[in-house]
Amino acid sequence: MGVKVKFLALVADIVGVDEDFVEVSSPIKLNDFKEIVYSKYPKLRDLEKRFPIVVLINGVKAEPGQIINDGDEVAFMPPASGG
Fold first, then answer.
1. Ranges in the chain, pLDDT < 50
2. What pTM does this model have?
3. CA Rg, the chain, in Å?
4. From 38's CA, which of 16, 47, 74, 82 has a CA 20 to 30 Å away?
5. Rounded to the nearest 5 degrees, what angle is found at the Cα of 27, between the Cα atoms of 26 and 33?
6. What's residue 80's pLDDT?
7. Nearest alpha carbon to residue 34 among 8, 55, 7, 61
8. What pLDDT does 64 receive?
9. For residues 51-63, b (16+ Cβ closer than 10 Å) or e, as one string?
10. Comparing C-alpha atoms, which of 74, 78, 80 is closest to residue 37?
11. Going from the N-terminus, what domains does the chain have, and what CATH number goes with each?
């Protein structure tokens, strides 16, 4: 199974890439998928310890136990701010 991973804004700056493709078993829970991504990009785990990372699956905010399927796109982005 292949999942496209996108890193947006500050997250991309920290991990050093904008996109990646991750092969995983299908289907997989978001929390398990995050562990795979964190093992590949440890700076992302460090970043999440400092502030919450927003995760989108196919452009929609994800829930912790949500299932990721083959062909999905998962994006990691910093929380929105401003006023």
1. none
2. 0.92
3. 12
4. 82
5. 95
6. 80
7. 55
8. 86
9. eebebebeeeebe
10. 74
11. 2-77 (3.10.20.30)
